[in-house]
Amino acid sequence: MEWLTELITTMHWGAVAQIIMIDILLGGDNAVVIALACRNLEPKQRRQGIFWGVFGAIALRVVLITCAVYLLQLPLLKVVAGLLLIWIGVKLLIPHDEEDKHIEASTKVLSAIKTIIVADLVMSIDNVIGIAGAAQAAHEHHQTLLIIFGLVVSVPFIVFGSQIILKLFDRFPIIVTFGGALLGWIGGGLVVSDIFMAEHIPQTNVVHYTACVVGAILVVLIAKMWVNKQKAKKISS
Fold first, then answer.
1. Which residues are listed as membrane-spanning (predicted)?
2. Which string of b and e fits 115-152 if b means at least 16 CB within 10 Å?
C-alpha cells in the first residue's frame, strides 16, 4: 500500500480538478449523442449500448490524449495547442443557436456503440487538447494515470449529470465564464512552456503565471468583443 500512499501525496490534484472541469464543460454534447444513438434500442439493449459505447469512447480518448501528451514534447506544438485552447475557450463563451443533431439512431446495439465511438472521436478534439494541456502540470510519471483517473471520474457527470449541469450553467453563467478562462489559463501556460519558447523566455513562476493570466483574460475579452459585435450587427439590421 506504500505505492498508493505515495501516489496520493505526490499527485497533482489541481490538475485532476482541471481535467474533470474541462471534461464536464466540453462533454455536454457527448451525452446528447449517446441518447440519440440509443433512442431506438430496447431498454435492456439501451443500457448495453450506453455502457459499451461510453467505455469504447473513453478508452479511445485515453489513447489519443496519451499520444497528445507525448507529442506536446515536440518544439512549437505546445504553442499551437495553447493557441487552440484559447480559441476553444472563446468558442465556449460565445452563445450559439441550437443546431439539429443529425445522429443516426440504430435498432442494433453494435451499430449504436459504433455511432457513439465515432461521434465521440470527431467531437473530442477540444477535449483531447484541453486534458493533455492540464496533464502537463503533473509529474511526467503521473500524466497517463492522471488522464485515466480524470476521465473515469468525469464519466458519471457526462452520462448522468449533463442535464443538471446544463441547468446550473443557465442559472449561474459565471461557471461557464470560469471554464472558458480556465482553458485560456492552461493555453497561456502551454505557450510559454514550449521547448522552443523556453530557449528565448526565462522559465520562472512569474513568467508562467503571467502567461496563464494573460491567456485567461484574452479568452474572456475576445468572447465579450465577439458578443458585442454580434449584438451591434443585429441592432443595425
1. 12-38, 50-71, 77-94, 115-138, 144-166, 173-196, 208-227
2. bbbebbeebbebbbbbbbbbbbbbeeebbbebbbbbbe
- Per residue in 176-235, pLDDT (tens digit) is 788 788 888 988 988 998 888 888 888 898 999 999 999 999 999 999 999 898 888 888
Centre a 10 Å sphere on the Cβ of residue 196 and count the other Cβ atoms it contains.
13
pTM beyond cutoff 0.85? no
Question: How far does CA 112 lie from the centroid of its chain?
Answer: 23
Contact 189, 82 (CB under 8 A): yes
Domain-wise residue ranges, the chain? 13-236
Residue type (1 letter), 181: A
**Are 83 and 166 a contacting pair, CB within 8 Å?**
no
CA atoms within 13 A on the CB side of 211: 21
Number of residues in the chain: 237
Rounded Cα distance between 23 and 57, Å, is 13
